[in-house]
Specification:
Length: 359
Amino acid sequence: MSISFREEIKNLKAYEPGKPIEDVKKEYGLSKVIKLASNENPLGCSPKVKEAIINALDELGIYPDGNATLLKETLSANLQVNVDEVLPSSGSDEMIDIIAKAYINKDDEVIMADITFPRYIQTTEMMGGTPVIVPLKEFTFDLDGILSKITDKTKIIWICNPNNPTGTMITEKEFIDFLDKVPSNVLVISDEAYREYVTRDDYPHNTINLLKKYSNLLVMRTFSKAYGLAGIRVAYTVGHRDIIETLNRVRGPFNVNTLAQVAAIEALADEEFLRKSYELNLEGKNYIYNEFDKLGFYYPPSETNHIFVNVGKNGQEVFTEMQKRGVIIRPMGGDFIRVSIGTMDENRLFIKELKEVLA
């Protein structure tokens, strides 16, 4: 084809999501497959959310509220921030794109970890920015290493806390000490997709309160994980009104669909469902930890709904063999895999099949 494209995307590769269940069934002739690859909530979503979605189906013939007014007002009240300090998006993925489009100029430097959510580097390169990679230290963000890489060209720092795929976290004290040393003209983004699963008290649970002091901080949260709304795509970002207003200029006019807005509002209200999701995840995590310990596997302690583990055998081979047995996990390079925590039945099946594969 002779139509030229932007030079910046020449080396970009499309994001590869976890393999769909139906594809694996067809490929291996299986009737039952479980997916523990994409960090989804095994409980699905709140029954109250489903009811709200059904009640909103008659609205599908009209455009959604382009301002997501009710959702923004609900989030504003829930987080105790002003309405103009919050911006919903079609999942965190869209917001990562919006941030890149709004702030990254050609050759701007964007600092991120070597093992973290891949969309950060993709959007940086898409805009012609320069990714500055700081290796994790003991599978956790090396904040001192990040600070040492800040230059006059630095525009954005990405902090995924807890981190995907390693599940590790930085503490509130570490984060505040870090923010104190970052120049005020550098945007720091705290991607908190898994915050609802955190068990430790020293996690920065109240980053929203830090926005009052650090105007260069953005906090991203999502309904895809603990709230179980991955399929409907809805998230939100909180920050200084000037930054939110800038991002709003880039946002598409109807980016959060009607059902997503309704679902998010109802999900916020169902605290009991969130508690059940947390408890099931903790039970499953402790079970898998115990089984990994018996097998002598190394894994960094996780504060998410997934575990990053060295299984002592090539992860891609394990991924393929597990699929043949009806269990989808995620290869992570070398001997590492990432497994999402499922229901207890799914967790037991995962361990059973993994033992057979490794044997």
